[in-house]
């Protein structure tokens, strides 16, 4: 993750979903949205990606109003277009429709060139039992590493 400036991370996504695949997408933003992101203000915890009108859109992502933009400000929870190749959109659409997967935003960041990017995960929902099992596995892996470190 060198050179990236992380703006927002969806930590709940890794708990609530089993991430099968990730994809880096561009995002269409207005000027005041970029300014607000540069201040590190955004919330993608309640958002998701949806395929509408042949394009991929980020829905319910909250980028707060940039106060200095005055009357040229943006709508905080507007629908934002994600920039993905048509081939990728059809692949994602197939997985969402046939396999019952969900497109969940994982991270919102600026790449080394200063362009806003969104890491999108294709995920399968977890049930409560699966969440407990994942926590148990993670705890055991941590304990195992600790034991190996003490022994070695």
Give the helices and strands, then pairings.
Elements: E1 5-9, H1 11-16, E2 17-27, H2 31-38, E3 48-52, E4 55-59, E5 80-83, H3 86-99, E6 102-110, E7 116-125, H4 128-151
Antiparallel strand pairs: 1-6, 2-5, 2-7, 3-4, 4-5, 6-7
What's the short version?
By secondary structure, the protein is α+β, with helices and mostly antiparallel strands. It has 4 helices and 7 strands. The radius of gyration is 18 Å and the shape is globular.
Folded structure, characterized:
This is SsrA-binding protein. Pfam families: SmpB (PF01668). Keywords: Cytoplasm, RNA-binding. Helices cover 34% and strands 32% of the residues. It has helices at residues 11-16, 31-38, 86-99, 128-151, and strands at residues 5-9, 17-27, 48-52, 55-59, 80-83, 102-110, 116-125. The protein has 4 helices and 7 strands, in the order E-H-E-H-E-E-E-H-E-E-H. The radius of gyration is 18 Å and the shape is globular. The protein has one domain (5-126): Small Protein B, Chain: A. The mean pLDDT is 87. A 7-stranded antiparallel β-sheet has the order 1-6-7-2-5-4-3. By secondary structure, the protein is of the alpha+beta class.
């Amino acid at each position: 993750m060198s050179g990236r400036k992380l703006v927002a991370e969806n930590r709940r996504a890794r708990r609530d979903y089993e991430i099968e695949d990730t994809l880096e997408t561009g995002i269409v933003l207005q000027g005041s949205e970029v300014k607000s992101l540069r201040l590190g203000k955004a919330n993608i915890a309640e958002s998701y990606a949806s395929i509408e009108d042949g394009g991929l859109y980020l829905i319910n992502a909250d980028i707060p109003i940039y106060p200095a933009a005055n009357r040229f400000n943006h709508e905080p929870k507007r629908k934002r277009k994600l920039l993905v190749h048509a081939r990728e959109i059809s692949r994602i659409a197939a997985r969402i429709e046939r396999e019952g997967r969900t497109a969940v935003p994982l991270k919102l960041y600026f790449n080394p060139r200063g362009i806003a990017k969104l890491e999108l995960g294709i995920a399968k929902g977890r049930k409560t039992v699966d969440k407990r099992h994942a926590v148990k596995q993670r705890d055991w892996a941590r304990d195992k590493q600790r034991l190996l470190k003490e022994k070695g």
